[in-house]
């Protein structure tokens, strides 16, 4: 029996009365209810990603979007409730608000895992809503760490499979439209819900998370971190409504006024969506990859190449020696973080951090000059505005290369690549040409990330933020995730010293 079944998803007129069992949302619900065991290697990677999320959330605790989201969440205390990252474990809030605050903390630095195919995604955005609901409902429903692992295996599978098949960005729809359904499905698995309930939760979550890509265009705002947190919060609320018997727009994907017909490829569209066959394991998390550097994923390999050139060709650091740098890369990289985006902000020293971490001209120039990349130092205004950096930065452009575009979309993991070929023309007329296919930390890279590297990333980002005892406590709990009891799930967070949180002022709002 094949492990994956490809479903033909297309638009149907209302008069056709498409049976529920033939709708994609129902297929997703059936996947979520399949009690197939989680393979050991999948469990291992899910633990890695829980650690990874905690690392990047810890590093963002005092950043303005995280402070604001945390203040909103703390205005909604609730029992039993869920924890808010950074706060004491006994301080609990309503689970949808915990999903919100923790989702913003995870997403703020653009530093956690990624999957790229027909569309973009950060599948670990599923973790905050699932952990929040697990903590809130653990005692009442008898949930354990094994249930969290099962729920996350479903969430990763659904998001990755949707991203493989359906392009949102082509129609300027933000990628979190795949996150709402995946989080809802993962919550369904976590809570042991029936297919009918999950079906309606998926439909509601999708319907309420289709927004435009302007959040990742031009002058990128703080909403970039909020968008996936909003999808996670919406998914929690959708599941709650569905559990109370409330129904969804149907068919949400295939209807003549549904998402495909009106927002995506239109009435004549066909999508081939692969989902695990009944009884097949959910292994999609193993196809995802985390970041060693705090920047958009398609810059990861190019940062590694720039670091190597910094060591091997020190003359390239000086713009007086460089006439032009052209990065030949995929369509996505060129048009999203390269000069093909036609965003002048990507070359603006006054641009926001959110814009700069989506500017490969800036990122490559700084990594080439510094030989490193740091989630704080590489974005400081004084670093951004350094005259020799600005001069070099504005000599960096990108160009689409069909070969790299083909490799970007290749279904073969051994061929799939997110790098490019860099051609540097020097002032003396000589040329430097180098290329890199995948980041060093990629499973096929020079230094693949394993448990040791995930733990190391957490320790590095927690340094100066958490007390050493808290670092060790969290790592102990997280690495025991599959065997945690209901009472222990509340420990899947980090508590910062009170003085750290008090060092930032929470803005006043409505709540």
What can you tell me about this protein's structure?
It holds the Pfam family MmgE_PrpD_N. The protein has 511 residues and is an alpha+beta fold. The chain folds into 2 domains: 4-287, Orthogonal Bundle (2-methylcitrate dehydratase PrpD); 297-436, 2-methylcitrate dehydratase PrpD (60s Ribosomal Protein L30, Chain: A, 2-Layer Sandwich). The chain contains 20 helices and 10 strands. It has helices at residues 24-33, 40-59, 64-74, 95-107, 127-141, 145-165, 179-191, 195-207, 223-243, 259-263, 300-312, 331-336, 353-356, 360-370, 381-384, 387-393, 402-409, 451-462, 468-479, 498-502; strands at 4-10, 77-83, 92-93, 115-116, 120-121, 270-276, 322-329, 396-400, 420-426, 431-436. The strands form 4 sheets. The protein has a 4-stranded mixed beta sheet. It has a two-stranded antiparallel ribbon with strand order 1-6. The radius of gyration is 22 Å and the shape is globular.
């Amino acid at each position: 029996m094949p492990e994956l079944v490809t479903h033909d998803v297309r638009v149907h007129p209302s008069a056709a009365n498409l049976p529920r069992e033939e709708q994609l949302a129902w297929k997703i619900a059936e996947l979520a209810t399949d009690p197939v065991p989680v393979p050991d290697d999948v469990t291992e990677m899910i633990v890695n990603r829980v650690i990874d999320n905690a690392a990047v959330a810890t590093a963002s605790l005092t950043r303005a979007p995280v402070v604001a989201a945390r203040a909103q969440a703390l205005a909604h205390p609730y029992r039993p409730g869920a924890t808010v990252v950074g706060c004491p474990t006994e301080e609990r809030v309503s689970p949808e608000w915990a999903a919100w605050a923790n989702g913003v903390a995870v997403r703020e630095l653009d530093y956690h895992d990624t999957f790229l195919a027909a569309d973009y995604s950060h599948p670990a955005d599923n973790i905050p809503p699932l952990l929040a609901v697990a903590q809130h409902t653990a005692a009442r429903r008898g949930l354990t760490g094994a249930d969290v692992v099962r729920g996350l295996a479903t969430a990763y599978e659904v998001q990755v499979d949707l991203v493989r098949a359906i392009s949102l960005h082509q129609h300027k729809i933000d990628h979190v439209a795949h996150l709402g359904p995946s989080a809802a499905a993962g919550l369904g698995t976590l809570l042991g819900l029936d297919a009918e309930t999950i079906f309606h939760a998926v439909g509601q979550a999708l319907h309420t998370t289709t927004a435009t890509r302007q959040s990742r265009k031009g002058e990128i705002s703080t909403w970039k971190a909020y968008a996936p947190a909003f999808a996670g919060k919406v998914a929690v609320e959708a599941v709650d409504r569905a559990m109370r018997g409330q129904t969804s727009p149907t068919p949400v994907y295939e209807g003549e006024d549904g998402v495909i017909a009106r927002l995506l490829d239109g009435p004549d569209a066909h999508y081939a969506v692969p989902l695990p066959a009944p009884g097949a394991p959910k292994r999609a998390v193993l196809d995802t990859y985390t970041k060693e550097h705090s920047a958009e994923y398609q810059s990861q390999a190019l940062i590694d190449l720039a670091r190597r050139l910094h060591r091997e060709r020190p003359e390239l650091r000086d713009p007086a020696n460089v006439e032009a740098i052209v990065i030949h890369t995929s369509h996505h990289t060129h048009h999203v973080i390269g000069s093909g985006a036609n965003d002048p902000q990507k070359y603006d020293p006054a641009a926001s951090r959110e814009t700069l971490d989506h500017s490969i001209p800036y990122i490559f120039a700084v990594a080439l000059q510094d030989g490193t990349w740091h989630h704080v130092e590489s974005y400081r205004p004084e670093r951004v505005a350094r005259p020799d950096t600005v001069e070099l930065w504005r000599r960096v452009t990108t160009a689409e290369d069909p070969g790299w575009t083909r490799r970007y979309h290749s279904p073969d993991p051994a061929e799939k690549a997110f790098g490019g070929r860099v051609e540097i023309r020097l002032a003396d007329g000589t040329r430097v040409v180098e290329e890199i296919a995948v980041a060093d930390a990629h499973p096929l890279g020079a230094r693949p990330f394993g448990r040791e590297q995930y733990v190391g990333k957490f320790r590095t980002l927690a340094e100066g933020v958490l007390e050493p005892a808290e670092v060790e406590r969290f790592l102990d709990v997280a690495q025991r995730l599959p065997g945690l009891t209901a009472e222990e799930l509340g420990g899947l967070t980090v508590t910062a010293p009170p003085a750290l949180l008090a060092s930032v002022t929470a803005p006043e709002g409505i709540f």
